[in-house]
């Protein structure tokens, strides 16, 4: 398994204290591919695990869920190469 | 008044996420804004947010530290912020409509709102603006993946789908929602996203997007009622000794709710009072129910307390009151340790007594005269 840190993700809510002061943050990943893709050159996003690390700084309270770094399970059949993928952080 | 997300900042050792919010007071102006004359059925709007802060000054008054050399898009995190500028005049008092696009319209109506998109990063970036699907389930407000469409997002258009902005620069985008004549009645959900990408060309491309939610009710006549019920307040203390108050909440209206509010405790031991303490819940679907749990300071005595929980979703408000008690602090760990010590001591004591008794008996036997036959 490959594990790496993506760096900090920061959400700034400056919309004021009046209700509702809520936001939802999600993370999604595409499949990781190398070369032209194909079965042996693709690591599906089901093999990509994401853990939100611990909260390093917060003000204003709220419910915050900690976790660990990000990992990718490499299938045994995967061809060697540089695999690239996209990880999207959404907040609304 | 911006909601912003940054992805890919240098990692703090042992961590990969951080969250913070800057509490500021709402200073939204209620002055009407000029309306676009070319949109039939458009209604009056009020301003929903404050203009942006200066180019380099942050909302909390601190200046953003600038790097000495000019950064490249690969070096800096992807950062983007959004805020809504307009709310309907008839929702001037609905604070929820100042943050999200919330409205009820008849089929065939077109509504327009302005939103501000801000490049929060330190380099020039391209920001894509687009509507995408969302739904409200038992898990709360859920975004669709990528640019997935639903019925509502297919009615939404933005006047600029792509803007290129310098560091800390903003652009105002018009969002137009054109509801078809044949649209069925009901509430629909979507998000208008502003998206930017960082670290392009490396193994992991990080994309950050911040969005304005849309809750649009469609139907003839007036707006369907919003409402909710709060069941009895209950107090308790968890295994770590943290006191909490819970309340069951049920959506009894015909629109989704975003509930938040405050809990107060009064008439406690010695006349103590506490609060307000923030209470929040995920977005509640029609007929949905959830348990709101408010964690309190563990130093609070058991009570009894008179609790008051005031909740609101925009202008729909309810207050529940009741007597709560937190119960004694669990002292399980202490008790286990002590009982273990007592058991070990008693066992050692018993063994010592047995040994002494055996030694005594043995010596007595040795001392007894042996009869000579």
Could you please say which CATH topology of the largest domain in chain B applies here?
A: Immunoglobulin-like
Percent helix of chain A, as a range, is under 10%
Principal-axes shape call of chain A: elongated
Structural class by secondary-structure content of chain B: mainly beta
Helix-and-strand structural type of chain A: mainly beta
Indicate the mean pLDDT of chain B: 77
Please report the two chains with the greatest interface, counting residues with C-beta closer than 8 angstroms to the partner's C-beta. Answer: A-B, 54 and 71 residues
Low-confidence blocks of residues of chain A? 65-69
- Under CATH at level 1, the class of the largest domain in chain B stands as Mainly Beta
The number of E-state strands of chain B comes to 21
Oligomer: heterodimer
Order of helices and strands of chain B: EEEEEEEEEHEEEEEEEEEEEEH
Biased composition (Low complexity) (chain B): 1-19, 64-73
Keywords (chain B): Membrane, Transmembrane, Transmembrane helix
Organism (chain B): Micromonospora tarensis
Transmembrane segments (chain B): 340-360
Q: Short summary of the structure?
A:
The complex is a heterodimer of chains A (92) and B (373). Chain A is mostly beta strands and 92 residues long. Chain A has strands at residues 2-4, 8-13, 25-29, 32-33, 42-43, 48-49, 70-72, 85-91.
Notable characteristics:
heterodimer; A: 92 residues; mainly beta; three-stranded antiparallel beta sheet; two-stranded antiparallel sheet; 0% helix; 33% strand; B: 373 residues; Immunoglobulin-like; 2 domains; six-stranded mixed beta sheet; five-stranded antiparallel beta sheet
Produce the secondary structure layout.
The complex is a heterodimer of chains A (92) and B (373).
Chain A: E1 2-4, E2 8-13, E3 25-29, E4 32-33, E5 42-43, E6 48-49, E7 70-72, E8 85-91
Antiparallel strand pairs in A: 1-7, 3-8, 4-5, 6-7
Chain B: E1 3-9, E2 20-21, E3 45-47, E4 78-84, E5 86-88, E6 101-105, E7 110-119, E8 125-137, E9 140-143, H1 151-155, E10 156-158, E11 162-165, E12 170-178, E13 186-198, E14 204-218, E15 228-237, E16 243-251, E17 260-266, E18 274-280, E19 289-295, E20 305-313, E21 316-324, H2 332-367
Transmembrane segments (chain B): 340-360
Biased composition (Low complexity) (chain B): 1-19, 64-73
Protein name (chain B): Peptidase
């Amino acid at each position: 398994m490959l594990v790496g840190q993506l760096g900090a993700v920061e959400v700034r809510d400056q919309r004021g204290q009046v209700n509702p002061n809520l936001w939802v943050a999600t993370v999604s990943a595409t499949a990781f591919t190398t070369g032209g893709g194909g079965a042996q050159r693709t690591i599906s996003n089901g093999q990509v695990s994401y853990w939100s690390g611990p909260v390093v700084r917060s003000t204003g309270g709220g419910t915050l869920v900690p976790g660990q770094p990000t990992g990718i399970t490499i299938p045994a059949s995967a061809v060697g190469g540089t695999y690239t993928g996209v990880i999207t952080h959404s907040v609304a | 008044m911006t909601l912003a997300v940054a992805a890919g900042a240098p990692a703090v050792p042992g961590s990969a996420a951080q969250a913070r919010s800057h509490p500021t007071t709402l200073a939204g102006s209620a002055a009407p804004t000029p309306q676009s004359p070319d949109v039939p059925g458009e209604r009056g709007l009020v301003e929903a947010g404050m203009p942006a802060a200066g180019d380099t000054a942050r909302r909390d008054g601190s200046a953003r530290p600038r790097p000495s050399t000019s950064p490249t898009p690969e070096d800096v995190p992807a950062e983007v912020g959004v805020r809504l500028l307009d709310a309907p005049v008839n929702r001037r008092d609905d604070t929820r409509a100042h943050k999200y696009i919330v409205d009820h319209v008849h089929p065939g109506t077109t509504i327009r709102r302005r939103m501000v998109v801000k490049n929060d990063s330190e380099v020039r970036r391209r920001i894509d603006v687009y509507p995408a699907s969302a739904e409200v389930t038992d898990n709360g407000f859920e975004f669709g993946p990528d640019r997935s469409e639903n019925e509502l997002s297919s009615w939404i258009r933005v006047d600029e789908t792509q803007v290129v902005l310098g560091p800390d620069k903003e652009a105002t985008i018009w969002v137009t929602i054109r509801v078809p004549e044949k649209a069925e009645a009901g509430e629909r959900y979507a998000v208008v996203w502003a998206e930017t990408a960082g670290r392009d060309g490396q193994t992991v491309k990080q994309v950050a997007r911040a969005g304005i939610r849309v809750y649009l009710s469609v139907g003839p006549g007036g707006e369907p009622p919003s409402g909710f019920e709060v069941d009895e307040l209950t107090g308790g203390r968890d295994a770590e000794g943290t006191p909490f108050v819970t309340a069951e909440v049920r959506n009894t209206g015909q629109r989704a709710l975003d509930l938040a509010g405050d809990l107060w405790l009064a008439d406690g031991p010695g006349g103590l009072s506490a609060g307000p303490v923030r209470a929040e819940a995920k977005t509640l679907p029609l007929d949905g129910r959830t348990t709101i749990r408010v964690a309190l300071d563990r130093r609070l005595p058991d009570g009894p307390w008179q609790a008051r929980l005031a909740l609101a979703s925009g202008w729909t408000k309810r207050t529940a009151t009741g007597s709560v008690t937190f119960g004694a602090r669990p002292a399980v760990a202490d008790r286990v340790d002590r009982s273990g010590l007592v058991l070990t001591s008693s066992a050692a004591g018993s063994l010592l007594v047995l040994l002494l008794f055996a030694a005594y008996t043995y010596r007595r036997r040795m001392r007894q005269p042996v009869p000579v036959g």
